[in-house]
């Protein structure tokens, strides 16, 4: 059996080596390392895939969130509501721009923003909401958009973990996550479902005027070269990364299908065990399983993590310290937030290996080890 990896990028690369190497070689031959043709091609192809009118590639997913908030002209002291149960980048950029992060709780089944908690967090100073499509599942966007519309708030989707996920509205309309709010953002970090071989990110919008502002913000605030109309930053997707992503985008739906098959195996192995809660698949969301995350009941989570490691089976805890418990947000009084579900989940979640290259033998080994620990 091949060694089990949390994410097996090497094995994935071997299957597309010839095409990736040729794409990178073309960039090297042309020597257009910044804003080369592959970047333009990738933006157009990703636009077609997601249904977003405009795609603005950038250097990473954190930059995508920052540029989104800058382009919306949010001012110091404006409040931005995010879940606390997320990777720190979602909330970090809020504080970086001298905005005020306000934390809301999550649904215990989906791990995504709870609309009831969101509505309670809104104040007269709230300007934006950042729902996170966590672990590959969509947040409840129809409810979130209704709340945002009622209060006149911007919605910036953090789609770093769920590219390719589909959201179904009550009307039957289906949209890709990242294309629903006024702005969507994503990351192409190598471990993502659509990952490059380095950092990368993108921003999505259907608004023509906002798209122009986003492009300018990501490019030193330039309207044209050497003419800087607003304060911006320098955030570009390298041409080599775009070349890799062009190859992988064609296979994204196949990659998602492989992840769903692995998730099905795990579900079947664990669903009858009363101490394990398998990932909930919300009826409005087609889960893309960036992570496969269990919630344990009456089980020593850290003990399971150590037990698996001793058997050379990796696992991860996303996230052991939620944002509102981080020292970086102490100045905002975040530690006094009452987020019962978030605190409860951080003590009970564990994520198992999830990637496109898991085979039946590996999945059986992982499942058997988890059950062996829990049942003994």
Tell me what you see in this structure.
The protein is built from 12 helices and 15 strands. It has 376 residues and is α/β, with parallel strands linked by helices. It has 2 domains: 9-249, Type I PLP-dependent aspartate aminotransferase-like (Major domain) (Aspartate Aminotransferase, domain 2, 3-Layer(aba) Sandwich), CATH 3.40.640; 252-375, Aspartate Aminotransferase, domain 1, CATH 3.90.1150.10. The longest helix is centred in the first third of the chain and has 22 residues, at 9-30. The two termini are 25 Å apart. The model has no long low-confidence stretch (mean pLDDT 97).
Q: Notable features of this structure?
A:
Aspartate Aminotransferase, domain 1; Aspartate Aminotransferase, domain 2; three-stranded antiparallel beta sheet; globular; alpha/beta; 12 helices; seven-stranded mixed beta sheet; about 375 residues; 15 strands; single chain
């Amino acid at each position: 059996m091949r060694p089990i990896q949390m994410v097996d990028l090497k094995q994935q690369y071997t299957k597309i080596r010839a095409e990736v190497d040729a794409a990178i070689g073309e960039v090297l031959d042309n020597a257009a390392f910044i804003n080369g043709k592959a970047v333009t091609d990738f933006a157009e192809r990703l636009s077609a895939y997601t249904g977003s009118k405009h795609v603005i590639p950038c250097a990473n997913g954190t930059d995508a969130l920052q540029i989104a908030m800058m382009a919306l002209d949010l001012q110091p002291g404006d409040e931005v509501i995010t879940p606390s149960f997320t990777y720190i980048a979602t909330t970090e950029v809020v504080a970086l721009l001298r905005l005020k992060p306000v934390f809301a709780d999550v649904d215990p089944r989906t791990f995504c923003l709870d609309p009831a908690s969101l509505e309670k967090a809104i104040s007269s100073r709230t300007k934006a909401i950042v729902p996170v499509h966590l672990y590959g599942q969509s947040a409840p966007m129809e409810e979130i958009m209704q709340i945002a519309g009622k209060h006149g708030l911007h919605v910036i989707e953090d789609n770093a973990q769920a590219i390719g996920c589909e959201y179904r509205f009550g009307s039957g309309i289906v949209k890709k996550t990242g294309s629903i709010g006024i702005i969507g953002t994503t990351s192409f970090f190598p471990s993502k479902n659509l990952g490059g071989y380095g950092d990368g990110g993108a921003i999505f919008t259907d608004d023509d005027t906002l798209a122009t502002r986003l492009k300018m913000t990501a490019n030193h605030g330039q309207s044209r070269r050497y003419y800087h109309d607003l304060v911006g930053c320098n955030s570009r997707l390298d041409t080599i990364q775009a070349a890799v992503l062009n190859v992988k985008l064609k296979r994204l739906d196949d990659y998602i299908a492989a992840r769903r098959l692995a998730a099905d195996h795990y579900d079947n192995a664990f669903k009858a065990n009363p101490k394990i809660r398998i990932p909930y698949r919300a009826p409005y969301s087609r889960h893309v399983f960036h992570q496969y995350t269990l919630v344990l009941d009456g089980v020593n989570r850290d003990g399971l993590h150590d037990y698996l490691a001793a058997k050379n089976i990796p696992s991860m805890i996303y996230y052991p310290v939620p944002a509102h418990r981080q020292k970086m947000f102490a100045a905002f009084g975040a530690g006094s937030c009452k987020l019962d579900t978030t605190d409860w989940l951080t003590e009970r979640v564990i994520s198992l290996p999830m990637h496109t290259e898991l085979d039946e033998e590996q999945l059986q080994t992982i499942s058997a080890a988890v059950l062996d620990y829990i049942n003994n």
